Amino acid sequence: MILNVIQDKKILFSIGSIIISIVVLYLKYLAWYTTNSIAFYSDMLETLINVAAAIFGFIALLIAARPADADHPYGHHKAEYLSAAAEGLLVLITAILIFYESWQSWQHPRMPNAPFIGIIWNGSAGIINLIWSLILINAGKKLCSPALIAGGQHVLSDVWTTIGLIGGFILIPLLDLLYLDAILGFLIALNILRMGFHVIKEAIDGLMDKAPPPSTIEHIHKIVEQNAPEALEFHMMRFRKVGAVLFIDFHLVLPGNMNVYCAHQICDRIEYALKQSLGSVSINIHVEPEEEKKS
After folding, report:
1. pLDDT digits over 264-294, tens only?
2. Is the pLDDT of residue 243 over 70?
3. Are 27 and 110 in the same domain?
4. Which pLDDT value is given to residue 170?
5. Domain Cation efflux protein transmembrane: where (predicted)?
6. Distance (Å, rounded) from C-alpha 87 to C-alpha 54?
7. β-pair partners for 289
8. H helical segments located in the chain
């Protein structure tokens, strides 16, 4: 039930991302259409990829929400990482396209039309993106969603792009710097490239079952110690984070003369404490007799 609620919230945020990205795309299209600027064109192209990424994210969350089945006994949560990886690849493709267009503009520089009207349209889109990116990142952390966090970080990078773009764009008509339009396009492409590599790295870490942060691991150790005072030792503890779920498995060494019922109670106590503290977790405890103690 808890997982269903979490996934429902993720899907609502994903739908919101699609709507927001389309609104922002329209505003940036107006900025480019008004000015015929290569910098605003580059910014609009990045937002077009945001729309595609939001749609991919929505599809991934629908897949991730499906319950475990015979073919996928651990669930479908990794679909979120595939969405994040696809978004990273789209970002890299966008950067290449912008590099090309910026190079064309560098060879044939021109003064943008009505630059200040374009700034108004682009700035409005930036404000909307800033608000939505903070909402997405905060929601992604609370819901343990790599897809929402990746989407929020991507949108936030777009905000920084907008700030730098507007700041530089103001100088074009004031100082008659025709080449600055192409330079801004190059800078946007570099920023997009940086963000794309970051998003792909995060997705690969998830697909490769990277362990949670050391602070989380230390917290888990303390919970096990506090809720299993009868245990002689626990070892071979392993973790993997898959979307909203943290998988934990370890060996718990108990006195050899302890009966099965008592051992089962201890395991239940540990599992309850971990779920209360960490939320969505899947725990597998292998009970061993004292002869298996490692230290």
Report:
1. 999 999 999 998 888 778 899 999 998 877 7
2. no
3. yes
4. 79
5. 17-208
6. 9
7. 254
8. 2-35, 38-64, 79-107, 115-143, 146-175, 180-207, 214-227, 260-278
CA gap 13, 152 in Å, rounded: 11
- CB of 124 closer than 8 Å to CB of 235: no
Residue 283: which of 271, 291, 295, 268 has the closest Cα? 271
Q: Which of 131, 115, 130 is nearest to 167 (CA)?
A: 115
Domain containing 235 equals 214-292
Q: What percentage of the chain exceeds 90 in pLDDT? A: 23
The DSSP bridge pattern shows strands 233-242 and 245-254 to be antiparallel
Kindly tell me if the per-residue pLDDT of 22 is higher than 90.
yes
pLDDT tens digit sequence for 184-228: 778 877 877 877 777 777 777 777 777 788 888 899 999 999 999
Considering the domain architecture, whether residues 145 and 272 belong to the same structural domain is answered as: no
For the domain that residue 30 is a member of, what is the CATH number? 1.20.1510.10
pLDDT in tens, 152-165: 877 887 787 788 77
pTM of the model: 0.62
Q: Among the three residues 186, 207, 228, which one is the final residue of a domain in this structure?
A: 207
∠ CA 247-252-255, nearest 5°, is 165
Judge if 137 and 220 occupy the same domain.
no
Residues 55, 174: one domain? yes
Query: Checking DSSP bridges between strand 245-254 and strand 281-289, what pairing results, if any?
Result: parallel
Identify the CATH number of the domain in which residue 238 sits: 3.30.70.1350
What is the pLDDT, as a whole number, of residue 47?
A: 83
80-94 in b/e form (b: 16+ CB < 10 A) is bbbbbbbbbbbbbeb
Shared domain check, 250 and 171: no
